[in-house]
Amino acid sequence: MQQLQELRQKIGELDSELLAIFAKRRQLSQQVAENKYAHNRNIRDHEQEKRLLEVLTQQGLKIGIPENTTLSLFHNIIEDSVRSQYDYFLKQANRYRKSIDIALLGEAHSYSHMAAQNHFTNTVQSLNTTFCSSFMDVFKQVADGHVELGLVPIENTTSGNIIEVFDLLIEHDLKIVGEEKLKVKHCLIGTHNATLESIKDVYSHPQAIAQCKNFFSRNPKINSHYRNSTSSALSMVKEYQNPSIAAIASEMAAQKSGLKIIDYGINNYQENYTRFLLISRTDIQVPKTVPAKTSILLHTHQETGSLLECLHVLKQHKVNMSKLESRPIPTKPWQEMFYIDFDGNISHANIQKVLEKLAAVTTHLQVLGCYPKHDVIATHLNSDSINYKL
Amino acid sequence: MQQLQELRQKIGELDSELLAIFAKRRQLSQQVAENKYAHNRNIRDHEQEKRLLEVLTQQGLKIGIPENTTLSLFHNIIEDSVRSQYDYFLKQANRYRKSIDIALLGEAHSYSHMAAQNHFTNTVQSLNTTFCSSFMDVFKQVADGHVELGLVPIENTTSGNIIEVFDLLIEHDLKIVGEEKLKVKHCLIGTHNATLESIKDVYSHPQAIAQCKNFFSRNPKINSHYRNSTSSALSMVKEYQNPSIAAIASEMAAQKSGLKIIDYGINNYQENYTRFLLISRTDIQVPKTVPAKTSILLHTHQETGSLLECLHVLKQHKVNMSKLESRPIPTKPWQEMFYIDFDGNISHANIQKVLEKLAAVTTHLQVLGCYPKHDVIATHLNSDSINYKL
Fold first, then answer.
1. Which of A149, A317, B2, B287 is the most interior residue, by most CB within 10 Å?
2. How far apart are CA A233 and CA A211, in angstroms?
3. H or E element: which one contains B316?
4. pLDDT value at position B20?
5. Is A64 in contact with B23 (Cβ distance < 8 A)?
6. Minimal Cβ distance to B387: which of A10, A31, A261
């Protein structure tokens, strides 16, 4: 045991050293961002990253670290570096304030709250959050000018698109100014005397319940009930103090509520991600050097092949479409409108040309927003010929 | 530019330092594994990890690193450390040889090949691979004693279960001795004069085509065709040298083939994972201190509620089921058998009790294997009450 304690102490010391070097690296990376911004240079230089990764994997092999292990460690470090540099570019282009007013669903430590905190980690010192009880309320808070930004989930890898939010986006004249992705792990949360056996009714947001469908199949005696948010489900459990009822919410929310986590990670798939959108009354300026996404809304002519014509325009201009969702037009039953996300910045000539051509073949074209892309694509070794989409 | 070069050089130097410290940490972690194995101690000590992460996030905040960033970096480092320790325990319990004969689908750098290489990174010096043209051939190679191990994909997060492999598992009297998960990014690969516009026909394994369904929706003029493996599709493109045909395969395979990557990451979802199983004629010994999974096959009585009875046994013993798949029994049409994965080691008394009870309520019970679990669950801060499933 003595020996184990000593080894652990040495590991702790190495970890502190490692963290100190990492902090220095982050400062240098910040200086690189300043230099690149001043000279209007691209943030990503895949050739440079590739050379660095090649040197590091070789060095690693010499000291016994497998290639995959070195790559995994440095992909993580480079992703942090790239994201901080993007954030610096955005800050410069938009003069971010120290604090931002933001509306979102639920209460403190809801999934929306966690996504907002992650999104502004590098750019904003404090978030003034207005907690809402419905997605509609989030939109209303922003539209009425009570807050600067709203954050809403738009899709989940397990449960799919959140149609309600698509429809709210279509109904409101707001702009999409950002996106964020959050890995979601659902916990089953009850009172301190609750067990899996004592629970009869579980409350949560419909999305969370859909993402835990298999849990309910495995436990056929437990009934699921919808609530407006995971936070309101949690408040209910706390109020009633009844071991037969439980909520599905995040680990962090469980902790802060003082309730007990009965089961951890009950989502169907371990890889469960939710994508959130930031909405605002005004556009954001995305510097040309930061990879961007654009979201648009189209009404096509009532002819077969109209949508295909639009998709051809994107293809002709080599624009990558990442999302396509059709919705009925409320005032024109049996006609469809299309929501499309594609990679590209509306200030680029190529994307402007695309929008012109789309306007010519549709009855209505609306840009919902152009905003920085969340994903940082890792640079791979041995990949001279890759056509990076950034 | 001068300044950028200097900054990059300094970053490179810090990265080398970081890597050297990481190598030292890995050596100490190896000593920890030896100590724990000698004293029959558990590998994971979540309380210890939590204390370490708390200290590190506090230290990080003082030098300007956001909490999430520190956690993400050290979750990566701890995962590597835990996995190496598990591998050490397995090696001790099973006296791994320096080289292993393994059969798998495709050719060098196929997804199966990459999964095998990742799986044995820490434990085996060289893999002697026998490349097969079908999953059935992989099973045959193992069953006939030509190789010690086989590796086959069993499910994918986008395209679901690979029924063919389930059925092969059921037909052959082989043991599952391991699992591996691989993040799969599909590339569209053609000849050097091929472009997205010139391509009319795309060849690949049915699973890869299913995982890129949206690509085909976006490009309605491109037809998809099945081949036995991504590797054989690639060989075809190389042989014909025709700009109208392309293959879907991994980036690494594209590189090694000397063909051109026309589009990168064309899978529907960025988070696209395949789970592989290792099969063998003989069991593996999983030390009780290593988290394990058990796979079983059940035939239930022909009565409603028979399966439910089995699931109740698992629940009574607080055993977490991670997979349930039903298949028709070939010799008994309209009767179903069930394939079940659950967390637990068959050498634990609790799991032995579960198996006894299951045998009493089924007409057939077969243990397909007990093997180390691939996932390393990250220790979270602020989580005293978590009921870890390991």
1. A149
2. 16
3. helix B306-316
4. 97
5. yes
6. A261
Q: For this structure, is A276 an active site residue?
A: yes
CATH of the domain at B225: 3.40.190.10
Please give the angle made by the CA atoms of A343, A349 and A350, to the nearest 5 degrees: 50
Out of A11, A29, A254, name the one closest to residue B11 (CB): A29
Surface-to-core class of residue A98, CB atoms within 10 Å of its CB (0-12 exposed, 13-18 middle, 19+ buried): exposed
Q: What residue of A is the nearest CA neighbor of B155?
A: A269
B344 domain residue, yes or no? yes
**For residue B236, what pLDDT band results from cuts at 50, 70 and 90?**
very high
- Answer for the pair A275, A184: CB distance below 8 angstroms, yes or no: no
Write down the pLDDT at residue B387.
Answer: 34
Q: Any catalytic annotation for residue B276?
A: yes
In a domain, B380, yes or no: no
Q: Which of A91, A90, A62, A60 is nearest to A74 (CA)?
A: A60
Three-class secondary structure of residue B269 per DSSP: coil
Q: According to the model, what pLDDT value does residue A61 have?
A: 92
- Strand pairing class (B126-132; B99-105): parallel
Classified as helix, coil or strand, A220 is: coil
If asked whether residues A165 and A212 sit together in one domain, one would say: no
The beta strands (E) that lie in A140-194 are given as 149-156, 160-161, 175-183, 187-190
SS3 assignment, position A109: coil
Listed residue (B377, B195, B137) closest to A264, CA to CA: B377
Match 């990253």 to its residue by tokens. A49
List CB contacts of B337: < 8 A, sequence separation 6 or more: B170, B297, B298, B299, B300, B326, B327, B328, B329, B364
Residue B389 pLDDT level (bands cut at 50, 70, 90): very low
B322 vs chain A: nearest CA distance in angstroms? 9
Q: Model confidence at B241, in pLDDT bands (50, 70, 90)?
A: very high
Q: Does B61 touch chain A (CB under 8 A)?
A: no
pLDDT value, residue B377: 74
Domain count across chain A? 4
Task: Assess whether pLDDT exceeds 50 at residue B170.
Answer: yes
Helix (H) or strand (E) holding A365: strand A362-372
The yes/no answer to whether this complex scores an ipTM above 0.85 is no
Domain limits for position A201: 192-249
Q: Which residues of B, range 132-161, sit inside 8 Å of A by Cβ? A: 157
DSSP code of residue B183: E
Rounded CA Rg of chain A: 24
Neighbours of A151 (CB within 10 A): 25
Reported residue count of chain A is 390
CB-nearest partner of A382 from B218, B252, B262: B252
Residues A66 and A123 in one domain: no
Residue with structure tokens 């199949």?
Answer: A217
